[in-house]
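Target chain:
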Amino acid sequence: MSDSSPIIKYEDINLKRIGPKLWQFRDNEPKRVELAVLDYLSESGWHGYFTEHFDYDETLIFMMCWPDHKKIGSVTYLGISDVHQLFYRASDGFMQDEKKVNFSRADLLHNAKNFNEEDISKILNLWQSKPNFKKDFIGRAYLKSRHASELNAEILQSYFTAAGGIRFFIDYLERRFPQHLHEMFFKARLLTEEVRKRGDLGPMPNLMDSCMSFWNITNASRSPVGKYMSKAGIARFSKNTLNRHPKFLAEKVVSLANEIITARNEHMSKYSPPKAVLDLKVWRHGEISNIEVKAPNDRLRPHQKEQIQLDNENGIKSWVINVHDPVCS
């Protein structure tokens, strides 16, 4: 970050340390430090959630896009765990399911555009009626799934409004899953299927491996392609694939791979993953902020600092809360 980046705001607060991992604000129940800070913030009118437990953006997008929530959990559910799979397992998506998929990217966007705030409580009631409804799009993918019973309709509605309502989420979806990139991924699926079906062409498994490698490095991840394959690695992939037979399929694999890699890099300049997911997302009076919580002896990491500075540059007032125990100070 440049020296002209906004100065990071630090706030010092006192909480009572109850044990090695338990803190308490006033007479509230002792909790881990991030949740105790939420108790402190709620006194000033903030709503919020701990991002290690929840991701309301993903939860609301799933509510908005899914075609029939009454079928969630049944055989038509297809094991879809988070939002990117919802798009890339669509009938015109990137991944292919053995079971029939009855929606497309256009269907998902249509559902989202016809979503109403009042639907939040109706859908949540359906989710909460299923005893085992524990999903990544309620919690944080790759951290821990959370149960629908842990969600509160009024808090979700409050966040939906504070974020900007349906217009905000439609814009977010269009940026995150743009039509042209979605179409390229669908071409990749069809090409992979074409390679897989040609079992009579000699060294076809090697070409199929190349096609699958290209598929994996250009997948639905929000991370840049370079995280999975360097420029040198992409060059090796292209060279090795072009040496394989049949030549016309090898050329199609490399051509589409380079087309997608270029498009993904351009996409990342418009929609890039966060440098860091800060501990708390909070909102009040239509304002949303991100907060990183630091207990004693915990320091701000470079990527967290960079994220707070990026937030502030983009008009999001994010800051750091340093927690102290006055008894130990």
Notes: The chain has three domains: 10-51+277-324, 56-176, 179-270.
